[in-house]
Amino acid sequence: MASISYWFLSPSVVLALLGKLKGWDRTKPTPNFSWRSTVVDVVVPAKNEESSIDLCLASILEQDFPIRKITVVDDGSTDRTAQVVRRFAQLSGREIGLVVHGASAGKTPSIREQCELTDSDALLVVDADTVLCDRNYVTRLVQEVYRNAGVACACGEITPLTRRRRRQLAQLDPAARTVESELQTDGQIGASRWQAFLEFWTVLYRTSLYMFLQRILYDGHMKLFGSRLSPTGCGVLYRTSRLRECFAFAAPHMGDNLSNSEDIFIGHFFNWKGYRNVQVAGVRCESIEPAVTRLPRQLYNWSSSFLQTLYYFRDLPLSPFRKVKKGVAALFEGRRPEAPNHRIIQEQYRAPWGEQFTRRWGRGVGLVDLVSMIEKVSYPVFLILLAIFAPRAALLTIGVEVALTTTGVFLVAESGTRLKSAGMMLASTPIRLFSLGVDLVAVLRHLFDLATGNRKWRK
Asked: Which CATH number does the domain housing residue 165 bear?
């Protein structure tokens, strides 16, 4: 989620606003595959998730789209995750596969193994600390993935899973309620007020941040270029063939070291191939957020993963330069650039597939990568220099940015929650300022990795 800047004065926001003015591609798709016949399997990677995995599984079983198989991959948990899964399956009367790793291998190998084993059309990956809030979550994702041939994956919107909301969900599902009563797995039991206070600040920060990212930035970029940089990895539906294609590409080059956040790598691979990552409005999932004291590590993982991914797919941020070069060459040679060969099937934002086209012509979404990379380096440095040499200008810059972002969140929030959402955005300003420092640390560490040859990047 932190692959791009969320400061309102940034070029990435300007691109998003241009996309909102442009609107969606009005091409009427003519898919050659009926989404209703899609075979969907689910994989739930889990490590030490005894307090949440029952709610996750309950939300999957509530989906109105037929799911053929659910597999939980316990990646070396030291708690009772596997025991909870077995008991929940017994109480629900549904078959739930369980794979237990003796030692932790990471989330990426867990997903890859299931991707290689399944023969499903689509693979839904749901984090064990995430619940699918809408019964038609899978249905809507399947519809969007198979409406256009170029779409490789789809995700819904995400919001934080609060303590109150978690208690409500546990009481709604009989199997989850019984599991938590028998095994005492409610993660809130014994939690101190201080812990609740730390989680409250993360929820405050993330609620407003997700709204800004998803409803302004990602929505605008999709309207302008047809794709996000990457999906939200806690609840994403992949075309199995294309996810398998990604793992096949990675195997001889970096193995399972798909950066510090696999969804960012996978999303960039899809863009590099000319496929699309889409976000579906109207359906959402909720995910448990870490205490504010654990935010720096998570923010660092996301920020560093973005830089690591661009190291492998540098053709994307170089796209604008390639387009300019081709245009200038055509101008001086008195000829128009070659027109790419499009497919017969009609689809929105259609473009030739394959990395050969990307290397020669680039991809439009690569402009978002370029400006985001520049922002990660320039914004922290810019504010530090202003704070040292022109503190009043620094305060003015931050003040204008806060006013604009707060106004933006106010405008895109649901009716009745606008003042609350805007207040959250305002209150989370110190955390957003701190995140710029994390970006700077991630940049410096990435430069160190490049200099020392370290490429063992894995979540």
From this structure: 3.90.550.10
Q: Looking at the 3D structure of the chain, how many domains does it have?
A: 1
CA dist 198 → 129, 202, 203, 207, 313 (Å):
18, 7, 9, 14, 37
276 within domain boundaries: yes
In a domain, 200, yes or no: no
Q: Using 50, 70 and 90 to split pLDDT, how confident is the model at 185?
A: confident
Give the whole-angstrom CA distance, residue 94 versus residue 116: 24
Q: Give domain status of residue 387, yes or no.
A: no
- Smallest CA-to-CA distance from 351 within 390, 323, 318 is with 323
Q: Using CA atoms, how far apart are residues 133 and 166, in angstroms rounded to an integer?
A: 11
**What backbone torsions phi and psi does residue 399 show, to the nearest 5 degrees?**
-60, -45
Q: Of the ranges 32-36, 189-193, 283-287, which is most confident?
A: 283-287
User: Cα separation of 281 and 252, whole Å?
Assistant: 37
Q: What's the confidence (pLDDT) of residue 4?
A: 54
Pick from 284, 292, 286: nearest CA to 428? 292
Q: What is this structure's pTM?
A: 0.94
Comparing 66 with 2, which gets the higher pLDDT?
A: 66
Average pLDDT over residues 372-398: 91
Domain with 50, as residue range(s), is 40-183+226-311
Location of structure tokens 């991707």: 115
Segment 121-166, tens digit of pLDDT: 999 999 999 999 999 999 999 999 999 999 999 999 999 999 899 9
Residue 212 lies in a domain: no
285 CB-near residues (< 8 Å, 6+ apart): 126, 130, 131, 132, 133, 137, 156, 157, 158, 159, 234, 235
State the virtual CA torsion across 240, 242, 246, 249 in degrees, nearest 10: 120
DSSP code per residue over 305-334? HHHHHHHH-TTTTTHHHHHHHHHHHHHHHT
Residue 336 has pLDDT above 60, yes or no: no
Residue-by-residue DSSP string for 182-237: HH---TTTT--HHHHHHHHHHHHHHHHHHHHIIIIIIHHHHHHHS--SS--TTEEE
Q: How far apart are the first and last CA of the chain?
A: 15
